[in-house]
Amino acid sequence: MGSLARVKVYGQWFPIPRKQVAYSNNKNLTYTFSGNKIPVRPWTPLIEALRDIIYESGGPKFNFPLVNRYADGRDKIGAHRDDEPDLDKTSPIASLSFGATRKFKLSPVNKQFLVKPFSIDLAHGSLLIMHPPTNKHWKHEIPAQASMTTPRINITFRTMKLK
């Protein structure tokens, strides 16, 4: 599944501690983040069926799933906001988890908010939907959990602006 990409932080390249693969039926669409361009693969029937379940439950008909595989608790993603240039910021983002339960931590972007960071456990089969403006005001992450020894797969469904 996918490959290990790299991310540029303060001018230095680091490997991303997880594997990723992106899907779209639009060949002109690429996933671009932190200096990386990940080519897309055609939708699989399973991922399309999962997208349709979310759609039939009242969500949008997302056009772009990103799959991340976390091998164990050492694999993580740091605090960030989804701010890819082609992301439709008016659409929610749906996150579907399989495998190990991992913490999903939310922290306010503005430190003057009176709300403290908090975590939600994302168990196998859980669906988290971030509606706008969540992504504008909150950073999110999957922190390392050294005690976790089993894998987790996450499918993040988004709506990307088509070129």
TrEMBL record:
Keywords: Dioxygenase, DNA damage, DNA repair, Iron, Magnesium, Metal-binding, Nucleus, Oxidoreductase. PANTHER family: ALPHA-KETOGLUTARATE-DEPENDENT DIOXYGENASE ALKB HOMOLOG 2, DNA OXIDATIVE DEMETHYLASE ALKBH2. It is found in: Nucleus, Nucleolus; Nucleus, Nucleoplasm. Substrate binds at Y31, T32, F33, D83. Its cofactor is Fe(2+). Residues 61-161 form the Fe2OG dioxygenase domain. It catalyses: an N(1)-methyl-2'-deoxyadenosine in single-stranded DNA + 2-oxoglutarate + O2 = a 2'-deoxyadenosine in single-stranded DNA + formaldehyde + succinate + CO2 + H(+); a methylated nucleobase within DNA + 2-oxoglutarate + O2 = a nucleobase within DNA + formaldehyde + succinate + CO2; an N(3)-methyl-2'-deoxycytidine in double-stranded DNA + 2-oxoglutarate + O2 = a 2'-deoxycytidine in double-stranded DNA + formaldehyde + succinate + CO2 + H(+); a 1,N(6)-etheno-2'-deoxyadenosine in single-stranded DNA + 2-oxoglutarate + O2 + H2O = a 2'-deoxyadenosine in single-stranded DNA + glyoxal + succinate + CO2. 2-oxoglutarate binds at N68, Y70, H80, H140, R152, T156, R158. It is an enzyme of class 1 (oxidoreductase). It comes from Strigamia maritima (European centipede). Interacts with PCNA homotrimer; this interaction is enhanced during the S-phase of the cell cycle. Interacts with nucleolar proteins NCL, UBTF and NPM1. Interacts with XRCC5-XRCC6 heterodimer. Its EC number is 1.14.11.33. InterPro entries: AlkB-like, AlkB-like_sf, ALKBH2, Oxoglu/Fe-dep_dioxygenase_dom. GO terms for cellular component: nucleolus; nucleoplasm. PROSITE patterns: FE2OG_OXY (PS51471). GO terms for molecular function: broad specificity oxidative DNA demethylase activity; cytosine C-5 DNA demethylase activity; ferrous iron binding. This is DNA oxidative demethylase ALKBH2.
